[in-house]
Amino acid sequence: MKKISLAIIILFYVGNLAWAEFKLPDLGNPADKVLSADDEQRYRQSIKEQMYQYNFVMTDPVVASYIYHLGYQLAAYSGKPEQPFDFFMVPANVINASAYPGGLVVIYSGLMLETATESELAGVLAHEIAHVNQRHISRMMAKQQKSTIPILLGMLAAVAAAQTSNSGDAPIAIAASMSAIQQQLAINFTRYHEYEADRVGINTLYQAGLNPEGMSDFFAKLMQKNRIDPRYQLPEYLRTHPLSVNRVTEAKNRLKAFPKKDYVESVIYNYVKERIRVMTIDEFTDLEAYYLGALSTDDTHKQANLYGYALHQFRQNQFNAALKTIAKINPEPSVKHLVDLLEVQILAKVDAEAAKSKIDQLLKWNDGNETVLETTANILLQSKSFEWIDQAIKNLRKLTMLQPNNPHYYDLLSIAYYNALKPIQAGESMARKEHLMGRNYRAVRILRNLKKDDGLDYYQSSVINALIAKYEPLITDKERQQEIAADKGIGR
């Protein structure tokens, strides 16, 4: 009874949160059977904004950069390289992945931990990319319109709510609630859609230089787990992407059409996997015992396991022990910066000058590396030194140029300017972030308040006026009324 009641609570929470809180683009009632390209992009932007707003995105620099670059490596060979994509990792121990209209692909951290190779993870991504490029989601959603998006977001909300609870029944409650939602909407991909996504995805894997066997191997693993453990008859990836023996067999048969070649998988996959393991672990898992066991039996992944163990020790404030563990790592050149960054994070807690010296070296040799730029900026921002904060600002400005549509970077930049006692620049960065989050009314309000500052110079005033002129026409009547009501303390 306890498990059932928790599932019902989460279902109730999902329904109310979805309808009460999430904003949807007004798409009208299109007569065609497929959403237009513009409609797809509006859906994608709406979901993306709200995933950031409700902290569903794993913004850890190492994880976010890895999933972003792996996703685009595949997208470049997907047959539609012009299609824009966002690839996000959701920090939840659920074996699932999903694609949304317009090119938004979400991978749950639990799914990555279930994969054994980068090609298995890439197989899931390639499959989801194929669903986007073949417009499968849009075809299904065109008939359902607004009923689908809030419940899809509600699934994420259910996962987030249960993940923060202390109940051991949370994963089962998540599964039960998601199952009921899926059955209610009947939005499962059709058999034809799944076969087509397999076919297109396998070709994408091969063209991108990843092992196309990764897709069929992972799907076969999920089917095997489903037979062994009855808990996995609950939804997750198997429910939203129904598998069959025929599908797995056909996927394996398609591999015969590809000429044999050597496949190269990045070493970083194993390091990111261990990072995710440490960052998303539940309170009932003994990571100390896990890593001691892994290090005594698994020589193949020893370096990555040492990295994960050092990260675990760092998060437990065992700084000296973590430094000793890092000293045992002999990383390959492609992942050396990850080990160095973790060492810097630890040094910052015990020897600030040594940390700053290491940061200078890292920036010298990795000046365009997003992971290095963001991680070192976060470390530098912990200092009260204006010299350190100025370097953090330089890092973050580079990041906003590399990814100008990433609100997370503007959020960090605003904090950095605030710490540097530069309120005008802090406000401008915050306004840019609000704009990227779809909150143009707030962005304009911030900018208009900045105009009241007597210390504005000509350049700053010109930039602020230009941004107001850009953002103000984007404010919708609905947003304006919601913000006015919020200011007056009126409930929605």
Automatic annotation (TrEMBL):
PANTHER family: METALLOENDOPEPTIDASE OMA1, METALLOENDOPEPTIDASE OMA1, MITOCHONDRIAL. The keyword Ribosomal protein does not apply. The keyword Metal-binding applies. Its cofactor is Zn(2+). It comes from the Bacteria. Pfam families: Peptidase_M48. GO terms for biological process: proteolysis involved in protein catabolic process. One of its GO terms (molecular function) is metal ion binding. One of its GO terms (cellular component) is membrane. Keywords: Hydrolase, Metal-binding, Metalloprotease, Protease, Zinc. InterPro entries: Mito/Outer_Membr_Metalloprot (IPR051156), Peptidase_M48 (IPR001915), TPR-like_helical_dom_sf (IPR011990). This is Putative Zn-dependent protease. Residues 69-254 form the Peptidase M48 domain.
